[in-house]
Amino acid sequence: MKKIIPFIILIALIASCKSYNSSQIINNGNDNSLVENDTVSISSDESDYEIIIIEPGFNAWLAGTARPRGFHSQQYLESRNAILVQAWNQRNLQPQQYDPNLYELRIDYDTHTDYGYEVNYKLYNYFLYFQIKYNQRLSAFAPRI
Question: One Pfam annotation, family name (predicted)?
Answer without folding.
Answer: DUF6146
